């Protein structure tokens, strides 16, 4: 039986590893190599070493684009955090079985393709969309508001799509918080806001960091949100990369951008890893970690 | 040491969760400077009493008075009361020093005083060199002491300890019991200690409150509780006790009645106004039982039985006797090393007696 199990393990892990190697590692290496090649109008790339792709990254227009993308992602994360944290705190006030139901309701819409849901937002925010029509009908506004194809619309869409990715990690860290600690803080004279600032926030920080990463990282890449809600003006890093490959046809630059994005995301993940490791060492997660 | 000044008074305090009555019109007075233990089986409401005093729970009915002021409306964070939690509840992200300083910072104590008081508290629990450690770098006993220091540093009027020693192993628990007594004397703070461990309650308390099903069963010194339990529950909960059921034959004088129990006539001492034919329980601690050879007891009142089991306990020899009536009795005798006969064969016939006045006689209760 043991031998059978070993064989099963070999094939299961082997298959997964070869799959990842074939469809993740090899393409990534191809992208890496591409970033060091020369651009060619007819054949996309020439097999000749060049740093042109990487040089384009330092183009000021691109840097401002990158900055826009990063700031939009971060604003999205801040908005998600501002909604998610109070939401989770309220959720913790509910009896256990209600929490499960609420979380389930939260996740249900996300079984629908996100593209479809972005179209729905387009319909909501449009000049003849639900919000404008309603406001006009009530008489609050005379002319429809310009909401679609703006930075606001992109951030709105990103926040909507990514909110659960903020809520779930915060919920899981909040659930691990020993509520006796809050009793203890209360006992020692801490008011509700002091308990939040000195106990709850520091001890759920790993969840907050995880949530922010899980919002910021995908937010930079969700080109279809910017395409549908931001028009041409409000591009995300994902849009820029997509454009280099499909429209501008500057593959080395696109590849360099992809690598840059991977490095950026890896750096953030490393920060997160460090943060959780540190809080584990401090016992911030729970006792089972040491 | 124990002042007579009432510090905290609970009157008619009731608490119900759903349909479950946890506290039933509880009255309790806690005196300034005493070590009071709330003792009872799990679910008797003792922790709820603590949580109501601390302010974590609100009583449904009744009043909580501290220094003759009603504190029912006061939030937990404003009560001059601190708790040592069962799980210690130390803040895992703070050092020992910061844990202890927490209450002082919350109460806006001047910075210079904070440092002095934290160091003093650390000295008191002998953890001076651990100030910069995190709680998880401490042993259970050390965490326990930090939890105590964190509470007493605020100089509360009342310190509540919720089964605070139950997580420690036997030896450490013994040490901490002594340490707690020492601290209590040194600080002269009123301690309210909650436990289900009767041995702990007996050895530490000035007074014990025995609780069962949300009601006070008996309040008294450890000695009163052990030697003169007022009902079967208290008698059985505190230590081991043998129970003989019988009835009163006649009254001898205002302190003594004659009782028939286990087929023998006994003269027993009691303060209850029993009359003839009243059914009674005669209770006897195992260490008060005297075993002799039947021939030596022939001329005196005794019950006969057979040794059923012998347990060597180190200090004592515990014998389990089955009486001819079927009742089982435990006798706990100290060793007499000079007596070569001090041992029993299984099945050996013995005579069981006790000294009049060592028994406890209670009115008959419906068997629990």
Assembly level: heterodimer
Q: Structural class per helix/strand content of chain A?
A: mainly alpha
**Strand content of the residues of chain B, in percent?**
35-45%
Strand order of the largest sheet of chain A: 1-2
| Strand coverage percent of chain A | under 5%
Strand order of the largest sheet of chain B: 6-7-8-3-9-10
Question: What is the 3D shape of chain A?
Answer: globular
How do the SSEs of chain A run, as a string of H and E? HEEHHHHHHHHHHH
* Biggest sheet character of chain A: 2 strands, antiparallel
Biggest interface: A-B, 23 and 27 residues
Can you tell me about this structure?
The complex is a heterodimer of chains A (290) and B (368). Chain A is built from twelve helices and two strands; from the N terminus they run αββααααααααααα. Chain A has helices at 2-34, 52-56, 60-93, 96-107, 114-125, 130-138, 151-175, 179-187, 192-221, 223-229, 237-246, 251-281; strands at residues 38-40, 44-46. Chain A has a two-stranded antiparallel sheet with strand order 1-2. Chain A is globular, with a radius of gyration of 24 Å.
Key phrases:
heterodimer; A: 290 residues; mainly alpha; two-stranded antiparallel ribbon; 75% helix; disordered C terminus; B: 368 residues; alpha+beta; 6-stranded mixed β-sheet; 5-stranded antiparallel β-sheet; 8 helices; 20 strands; elongated
What's the arrangement of secondary structure elements?
The complex is a heterodimer of chains A (290) and B (368).
Chain A: H1 2-34, E1 38-40, E2 44-46, H2 52-56, H3 60-93, H4 96-107, H5 114-125, H6 130-138, H7 151-175, H8 179-187, H9 192-221, H10 223-229, H11 237-246, H12 251-281
Antiparallel strand pairs in A: 1-2
Helix pairs in contact in A: 1-12, 3-7, 3-9, 5-10, 7-9, 7-10, 8-9, 9-12, 10-11, 11-12
Chain B: E1 6-17, E2 20-31, E3 35-39, H1 46-54, E4 61-66, E5 69-70, E6 81-84, H2 96-106, H3 111-124, H4 140-152, E7 158-162, H5 170-187, E8 190-195, H6 198-204, E9 207-212, E10 215-220, H7 222-227, H8 232-237, E11 242-251, E12 256-261, E13 264-269, E14 279-284, E15 290-292, E16 303-312, E17 316-323, E18 328-334, E19 349-353, E20 360-363
Parallel strand pairs in B: 3-8, 3-9, 6-7, 7-8
Antiparallel strand pairs in B: 1-2, 1-4, 4-5, 9-10, 11-12, 11-14, 12-13, 14-20, 15-19, 16-17, 16-19, 17-18
Helix pairs in contact in B: 2-3, 2-4, 3-4
């Amino acid at each position: 039986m043991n031998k059978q199990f070993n064989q099963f393990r070999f094939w299961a892990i082997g298959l997964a590893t070869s799959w990842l190697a074939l469809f993740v590692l090899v393409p990534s290496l191809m992208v890496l190599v591409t970033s060091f090649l020369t651009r060619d109008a007819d054949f996309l790339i020439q097999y000749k070493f060049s740093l042109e792709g990487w040089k384009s990254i330092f183009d000021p227009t691109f840097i401002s684009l990158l900055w826009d993308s990063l700031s939009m992602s971060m604003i999205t994360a801040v908005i998600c955090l501002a909604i998610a944290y109070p939401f989770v705190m309220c959720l913790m006030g509910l009896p256990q079985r209600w929490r499960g139901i609420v979380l389930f309701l939260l996740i249900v819409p996300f079984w629908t393709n996100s593209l479809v849901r972005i179209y729905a937002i387009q319909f909501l925010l449009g000049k003849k969309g639900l919000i404008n029509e309603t406001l006009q009908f009530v008489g609050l506004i005379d002319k429809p508001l310009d909401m679609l194809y703006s930075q606001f619309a992109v951030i709105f869409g990103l926040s909507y799509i990514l909110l659960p990715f903020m809520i779930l990690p915060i919920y899981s860290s909040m659930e691990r918080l020993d509520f006796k600690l809050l009793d203890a803080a209360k006992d020692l004279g801490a008011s509700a806001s002091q308990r939040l600032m000195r106990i709850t926030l520091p001890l759920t920080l790993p969840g907050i960091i995880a949530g922010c990463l899980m919002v910021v990282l995908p937010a930079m890449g969700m080109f279809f949100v910017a395409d549908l809600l931001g028009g041409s003006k409000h591009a995300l890093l994902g849009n820029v990369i997509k454009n280099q490959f499909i429209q501008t046809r500057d593959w080395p630059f696109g590849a360099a951008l992809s690598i840059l994005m991977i490095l950026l995301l890896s750096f953030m993940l490393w920060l997160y890893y460090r943060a959780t490791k540190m809080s584990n060492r401090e016992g911030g997660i729970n006792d089972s970690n040491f | 040491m124990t002042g007579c000044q009432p510090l905290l008074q609970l009157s008619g305090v009731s608490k119900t969760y759903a349909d479950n009555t946890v506290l039933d019109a509880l009255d309790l007075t806690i005196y300034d400077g005493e070590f009071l233990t709330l003792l009872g089986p799990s679910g008797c409401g003792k922790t709820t009493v603590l949580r109501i005093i601390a302010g974590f729970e609100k009583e449904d009915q009744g009043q909580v008075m501290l220094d003759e002021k009603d504190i029912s409306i006061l939030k937990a964070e404003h009560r001059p009361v601190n708790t040592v939690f069962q799980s210690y509840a130390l803040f895992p992200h703070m050092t020992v020093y910061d844990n202890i300083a927490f209450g002082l910072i919350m109460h806006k104590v001047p910075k210079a005083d904070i440092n002095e008081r934290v160091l003093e508290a650390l000295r008191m629990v002998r953890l001076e060199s651990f100030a910069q450690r995190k709680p998880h770098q401490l042993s259970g006993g050390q965490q326990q002491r930090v939890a105590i220091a964190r509470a007493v540093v605020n100089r509360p009027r009342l310190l509540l300890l919720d089964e605070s020693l139950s997580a420690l192993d036997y030896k450490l628990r013994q040490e901490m019991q002594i340490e707690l007594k020492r601290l209590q004397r040194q600080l002269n703070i009123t301690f309210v200690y909650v436990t289900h461990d009767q041995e702990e309650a007996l050895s530490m308390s000035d007074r014990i409150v025995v609780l069962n099903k949300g009601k006070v069963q008996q309040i008294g010194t450890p000695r009163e509780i052990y030697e003169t339990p007022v009902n079967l529950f208290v008698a059985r909960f505190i230590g081991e006790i043998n129970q003989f059921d019988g009835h009163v034959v006649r009254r001898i004088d205002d302190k003594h009645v004659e009782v028939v129990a286990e087929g023998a006539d006994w003269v027993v001492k009691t303060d209850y106004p029993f009359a003839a034919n009243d059914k009674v329980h005669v209770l006897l601690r195992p260490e008060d039982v005297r075993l002799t050879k039947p021939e030596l007891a022939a001329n005196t009142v005794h019950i006969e039985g057979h040794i059923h089991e012998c347990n060597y306990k180190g200090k004592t020899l515990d014998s389990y006797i089955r009486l001819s009536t079927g009742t089982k009795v435990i006798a706990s005798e100290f060793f007499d090393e000079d007596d070569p006969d001090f041992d029993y064969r299984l099945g050996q016939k013995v005579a069981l007696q006790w000294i009049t006045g060592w028994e406890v006689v209670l009115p008959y209760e419906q068997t629990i």
